[in-house]
Amino acid sequence: MKIAIAPDSFKGSMTALEAATCIERGLKNVLSGISIRKIPMADGGEGTVRAVVEATGGRMLHRTVTGPRGESVRAALGVAGDGQTAVIEMAAASGLALLETHERNPMVTTTYGTGELIRHALRQSVKKLLIGIGGSATNDGGMGMARALGVRFLDSRGKVIPEGGGALKRLHHIDVSGLDPRVRNVTVEAAYDVENPLVGPKGAAAVYAPQKGATPQMVKELDLGLRQLAAVVRESLHKRIATVPGAGAAGGLGGGLIAFLDGTLRPGIDIVIDIVKLPKRIKGCDLVITGEGRMDGQTVFGKTPAGVARVAKEQGIPVIALCGSIGRNARKVHRIGIDAYFWALQELVEETELAKRGPGMLIECAEQVGRFLALQVPGAETVRLVRQTLKTTR
């Protein structure tokens, strides 16, 4: 029996590879003669760099860059195993998790450090940049990122405007003559998990700025700033970014990547599926097991288990999901091809204890799944009976 194990990371507990290894161990505790293919996955959010590196045999790099409030932070980026693709998570340099609650202020926070990570990636002579955009502390439309790569943002008197989303309303002209020329030699894909436009009632400021520390008045100013950015980009660079789905991701970084790096926006899970060659790697498997830290009704909207299930179903392979815990409307995942799900959490566990206790609970959960499979006839007959049972119970 061939089983592919393709989970996301379990936030606060395990990387995607560690989760896959725990599931493998649990299955092998009770099943003999099985063949396992471990395929770490991600959807463009936290854990994407490590998942791509581990799935492709790549390498991690660590660099010191500028944090969202101008402080120095240590951030990681990855190079895929083929040496052609660099992977970046903007949250590693410009993320909300890097700030204490009282430090959050999208009027002044910047994506400059994300631009510095891109500079470091360009030094690796790659041909493609994959940038995960999510978890940001910023609302600067990617101005800081572009500034780190040589773009100048000027007011009506020709003076450089300050960092942060609050300064965008003063923007009058964008000078791209100093843009790092190496940018022209790479393709840029931004992995997003939200489809918000740049501006308006569903835009970056209105929807996400409050959780980054913005007051209602700040939200109005930030939205005005992004509108001004979109107008100047249209005038200076002849690109329209205001209403593009995903342009509002990461405080408008999605729009900035389109404007300044000719980037394209795609759902993160689709990009990762391509990089790790998931369809090819699960071909011929009898069962696919995926998973994530918490499964709920939102899982169906482009999260890792949904993407894995879609690819598996295209090949007619049954799918089981193992997760840390479940939330509201988790049953919706059956509609997207997940035949059954199981959760590992046995009791309430403090977040600080997850890293210690999570792996053991996931191993035990996988073992119970293995025991169920062992009740059937081993080998291909197991799969036939499981498929038949699932069809009659749906």
Kindly list the characteristics that best describe this protein:
about 400 residues; Rossmann fold; Glycerate kinase, domain 2; 2 domains; 13 helices
Structure description:
The chain has 13 helices and 13 strands. With 394 residues, it is α/β, with parallel strands linked by helices. The protein has two domains: 147 residues, Glycerate kinase, domain 1 (Rossmann fold, 3-Layer(aba) Sandwich), CATH 3.40.50; 222 residues, Alpha-Beta Complex (Glycerate kinase, domain 2). The chain is elongated, with a radius of gyration of 22 Å. It starts with a strand and ends with a helix. 53% of the residues are buried.
The gist of it:
Helix content is 36%, strand content 18%. By secondary structure, the protein is of the alpha/beta class.
Radius of gyration, rounded?
Answer: 22 Å
Shape verdict: elongated
Q: Assign the CATH architecture of the largest domain.
A: Alpha-Beta Complex
Percent strand equals 15-25%
How many alpha or pi helices? Answer: 13
Give me the count of strands: 13
Count of distinct structural domains: 2
* Average residue-wise pLDDT: 92
Q: Multimeric state of these chains?
A: single chain
Furnish the topology, listing elements before pairings.
Layout: E1 2-5, H1 16-28, E2 35-38, H2 48-56, E3 59-66, E4 72-79, E5 85-89, H3 91-94, H4 112-122, E6 128-132, H5 143-148, E7 152-154, E8 173-175, E9 187-192, H6 204-208, H7 216-237, H8 249-261, E10 264-267, H9 268-276, H10 278-282, E11 287-295, H11 304-314, E12 319-326, E13 340-343, H12 354-374, H13 380-393
Parallel strand pairs: 1-2, 1-11, 5-6, 6-9, 9-10, 11-12, 12-13
Antiparallel strand pairs: 3-4, 4-5, 7-8
